[in-house]
From TrEMBL:
Protein's name according to its UniProt entry: SPFH domain-containing protein
PANTHER family reported in the protein's UniProt record: BAND 7 DOMAIN-CONTAINING PROTEIN, MEMBRANE PROTEIN-RELATED
Annotated InterPro entries: Band_7, Band_7/SPFH_dom_sf
Keyword annotations: Membrane, Transmembrane, Transmembrane helix
Domain of life: Bacteria
One Pfam family per UniProt: Band_7
SUPFAM superfamilies to which the protein is assigned, alphabetical: Band 7/SPFH domain
Membrane-spanning intervals of the chain: 12-29, 35-59
Main location: membrane
Residue stretches making up the Band domain: 54-220
SMART domains: PHB
Length: 288
């Protein structure tokens, strides 16, 4: 469990160290010729100045020091400035700044077994210095490995799109913020044991693998064409039905079944054709 320490300021100790150092020089110069006591005092003052100097530490903004005393965790200092601690403490520097992890592009299979390429960008920082220092070997390597595992699991849990799974509630391509939220949650669960806080996680690259990209593009185009044609036919049928009803209700012209069939055929050709219809004048009747 992380424990926050508030050590004493180090400015007074710095002044004392400088005073002892100056005193050691003066005593050594004074007693080097005929006074062994002054030489011993000079050496003692020098050793004390070095000992106290070892207890001084400077902590930059958004950095911390994890302190140990002969293998026992003492606490963590997160304040910035010059401080004095027990010179026998050992310290480990841990940055509290936010860091970006640009994951490499991974080739994995989605839920439907299609090979895809996926990459993510993760913004993270150390939240618990005790876990980062003692629960894992190297927390930065731990973040990289677990992030890759989380991305692979995410890709295998959802289809790339809904071409093969029409009832999929979430897809990688259209999931958007929901997919990113699921990724953040899984990363938080995986990295919490290392004291890592996930600030943001987003998919930066998503595409079909190169070996099936062409086939999938043709399939998407065919699906789009079929969907568009379906809409066109539905609209044309509605317009033909409306035209027949208006002609019948207004008693504009009496059409038998053969004439209705011919009219429906002509209107469907005009409405569903890809190109504009070319008018043809009929000087006779529908039966000639």
């Amino acid at each position: 469990m992380e424990k926050i320490l508030k050590p004493m300021s180090g400015y007074l100790t710095l002044v004392i160290c400088l005073g002892l150092f100056v005193a050691s020089i003066y005593l050594f110069v004074t007693g080097v010729d005929n006074n062994i006591v002054l030489v011993v005092l000079a050496l003692l003052a020098f050793v004390l100045s070095c000992f106290f100097l070892k207890g001084l530490m400077i902590i930059q903004p958004n950095h911390s020091r994890v302190l140990n005393f002969f293998g026992k965790y003492v606490g963590t200092v997160k304040d910035n400035g010059l401080f004095f601690i027990n010179p026998l403490y050992s310290s480990q520097k841990i940055s509290l700044r936010s860091e970006n992890l640009q994951g490499q592009t991974l080739k994995v299979n989605d839920k439907m077994g299609n090979p895809i390429e996926i990459a993510v960008v993760i913004v993270w920082k150390v939240g618990d210095t005790y876990k980062a220092a003692f629960d894992v070997e190297r927390y930065s390597d731990f973040v990289k490995m677990q992030s890759e595992a989380a991305v692979r699991h995410l890709a295998m849990s959802f289809p790339y799109d809904n071409l093969e799974d029409d009832h999929a509630p979430i897809t990688l391509r259209e999931g958007g913020d929901k997919i990113n939220a699921i990724l953040e949650q899984e990363l938080t669960e995986r990295l919490s044991k290392a004291g890592i806080t996930i600030q943001e996680a987003r998919i930066s690259h998503l595409a079909y693998a190169s070996e099936i990209a062409g086939a999938m593009l043709q399939r998407q185009q065919a699906t789009a064409i079929v969907a568009a044609r379906t809409k066109i036919v539905e609209g044309a049928v509605g317009m033909v039905d409306l035209a027949l009803k208006k002609l019948s209700e207004g008693n504009i012209v009496e059409l038998d079944d053969e004439r209705k069939a011919a009219m429906v055929s002509n209107l469907m050709v005009v409405l569903c054709g890809e190109k504009a219809a070319q008018p043809i004048l009929n000087a006779g009747t529908l039966y000639n």
